[in-house]
Give the backbone structure.
Amino acid sequence: MPIKKLPDDSGATLTVVDLDGYYLPTFYELEDHEEQMRSLPKWKARDDDVMICTYPKSGTHWLWEIVSMLVQKKAERIKTVKETAMLEIMVEEAYDNLPSPRVLNSHVYFEYLPQDFAKRKCKIVYAMRNPKDVAVSFFNHHSKIIEYDFSGKWEDYVSRFVKGDVDYGTWFEYTLKWEKFMADNPDYPIIATTFEDMKEDALREVTRIAKFLEVDCDQAFLQEVTDLCHFDKMKKEKNALEEQVDGWKDGTPGMYRKGDVGDWKNWFTVAQSENFDTVYREKMKGSKVQPRFTLR
Ligand code: A3P
């Protein structure tokens, strides 16, 4: 697959692969990455598959852990990482060998996902996070994971993020596509949540998701799942597993960084924030999406 080094205004580059203009992480460990990606829409789904769809850095690990516990009906730490069920880094054989019920996850657009999935109306859990916190989280992700070979500065990063010179393209396009999908397919079984809603009241969101997935359980179970998936507990208990998946620059995994709403205020200058707001209004004109940039 063609490797591309995307430069920012200062010339610092971020390494991705270019699939006909759609950028993906390099995932060097996959031998036939291009072939796998091109065949992905033809993979077979199962009726009880659940798919978590998010733009990167929107709380996918958190949701995957929650949904995995819910479908297994066990409030027990999941012994693998969500990357083992992430479509764009899997080979078809591994995908076919995952035991049911599968909790899959992906950041790619709906059109790249298995078409069989839509045909069977497999359930989707979709989550959004406010794009300023996503930008900060993505910057830290790009800075720490070796294969991006990225050492750009935050001051140049916001324009990179806005332009979509990152893996998976822009937050705006991703979010607008999902908004359209939900409007065009009102009968599709999809539940939408947000990182901010989960931070505001995790038990409430876990309860909603359990109901959507038709998990027969009591309140104590839902509380246990919520507690096990608290940021501090996950960071402590899942970091070691994450270390085996991505190569981290200083040897310490950074997947569980801060887990807050509003950390962007520690990163964006006033000018950056105002510019971002202007771009946001332009790009999201006509959209009903309303991210919460702060909880208070
Ligand atoms: P920060 O970098 O802002 O801390 P993803 O899983 O989609 O890659 O998203 C990663 C973001 O979710 C990171 O955000 C990470 O810290 C946060 N996160 C992961 N697990 C979490 C949890 N249990 N509770 C709250 N935030 C969590």
Remarks:
- The two ends are 45 Å apart (CA to CA).
